[in-house]
Amino acid sequence: MVDVILSLPEILLKKRNGEELLEDELNYFVDCICKKEIDRSQIGAMLMAFCLRGLNTKETVTLTKSMMNSGTVQKWDPTWQTVDKHSTGGVGDKVTFPLVAAVPLFGLKMPMVAGRGLGHTGGTADKLESIPGFQIGLTEDHMRRSLEEIGCYVTTQFGNIAPADKTLYSIRDITSTVSYPPLICSSIMSKKLSEGIGSLVLDVKTGVGAVTGSYEQAEGLARMMTEIGAGMGVETTAVLTEMDTPIGYAIGNSLEIIESLECIKGKGPSDLENITCAQGAVLLCGARIAKTQEEGEEMIRKTFQDGSALDMFLKILKNQGVKREILESLRSGDYDKVFAKPKYVENITSKTSGVIEAVNALALGKATVLLGGGRQLPGDEIEPAAGIKLFRTKGDKVQEGDILAEVHHDGRLSTALRARIDEAFTIGTSSKPIKRVFAVVKAGQDTEDYEVYRKRS
């Protein structure tokens, strides 16, 4: 029998020496954080020991579960099939909106907690708040009624979600332990799984505009999160997607909502629709509603074509405070009546003829922040109309003088920023088409090419 150590200095010593921590020891560490019975220096020392000596899968699952249980964990009707998605963040990433419009139509419940933008990636909550009247903060009673009556809500972090994670993150930030993968995964999953879901699809992005630059890093992060999910009894599937190029043509809060609505109406960019259908199909297959990934994709796509997804999305908006006249304008596509207008719209034009070989997602994401469409610091005000609307993307042929993009701004487009946006477009003689969805990762299984997976599953 292995002795359990419930002394912080001895637990620290054990991990410093590279030994595996037991469940009770990790729970004791998290409990001390919540009760404020631990010095910040001890937390910093433990985090550094985690990084230098490592956390195995069992330890990471235990840490995640303990962090989740340190706060509020939602409990729903046990007969419900509750699902959600999480994205590691990207530029022009608006997949959440068509996804929540389609998935609840099949009887699945989506209790979605959305984040705000920080850095070059936009936030789901900020985008929704560009719709006049939309209320992102909901009471627990409102959330429950939303699931019962509609099947979905989108809210910001509520109650006392994973308070241990807040403390750990603040110290990770000042001890150079932010980038350690098990700590990244435990932070994400402790909050996401507190929603009380039974199934989760992860959109793990790779490329210049992603938090994980290389494919190998993204695959490793995806595998770790799927193993955590499986270890906590939640069916978890990760889809690896490309983030060298912005998704669709719109970057910025209201611009992305407009493009999402067009997707929901079956008239959006093909890459946005394809990513949404891939993730929606994962959830439908997990719930045994679709027999194969291909069938699930077509079921999601049909909701965009027959108008049912639009009806659902407008129900969600109405349930969260959007008035009838706004909903009617959104349905008809009269967006000028709904959204704030930019003071200035300026064109970026091509200086040469050729083929667009690359559109740098990171550069355009950072530019959108500087235009006022994102935050440089928590608490910064968002300019909902600011952003960049692409007219051309990777693989398109252009002539000298063609419009590459429109810049929507309130006066913040400096000469230097304009040059940065212009330099985001690389024009040459040839280009490969964008491949958005690379592979699928599941716990205990080999990573599988998406095209093989969708035909086999």
Question: Strand percentage, roughly?
Answer: 5-15%
Low-pLDDT segments, ≥5 res: none
Cα distance spanning the termini: 43 Å
Net shape: globular
Tally the helices: what do you get? 18
Class based on secondary structure composition and strand pairing: alpha+beta
Helix content: 40-55%
With strands numbered from the N-terminus, the spatial order across the biggest sheet is 1-4-5-13-14
Q: Biggest sheet: strands, sense, closure?
A: 5 strands, mixed
Mean pLDDT across the residues is 94
- Write down the Rg: 22 Å
Number of strands: 14
Explain what you see:
Helices cover 44% and strands 15% of the residues. The model has no long low-confidence stretch (mean pLDDT 94). It has 18 helices and 14 strands. A five-stranded mixed sheet has the order 1-4-5-13-14, with helices on both faces. Strands 6-9-11-7 form a four-stranded antiparallel sheet, sandwiched between helices. The chain is an alpha+beta fold and 457 residues long.
Q: What's the short story on this structure?
A:
With 457 residues, the protein is of the alpha+beta class. It is built from 18 helices and 14 strands.
Strands, helices and their partners?
Elements: H1 8-16, H2 23-34, H3 40-53, H4 57-68, E1 83-87, H5 96-102, E2 110-113, H6 124-128, H7 140-149, E3 152-155, H8 163-172, H9 181-192, E4 199-206, H10 215-231, E5 235-242, E6 250-251, H11 253-264, H12 270-286, H13 293-306, H14 308-319, H15 324-332, E7 344-349, E8 354-359, H16 361-373, E9 387-390, E10 397-398, E11 403-409, H17 415-423, E12 425-428, E13 437-442, E14 448-449, H18 450-456
Parallel strand pairs: 1-4, 2-3, 4-5
Antiparallel strand pairs: 5-13, 6-9, 7-11, 8-10, 8-12, 9-11, 13-14
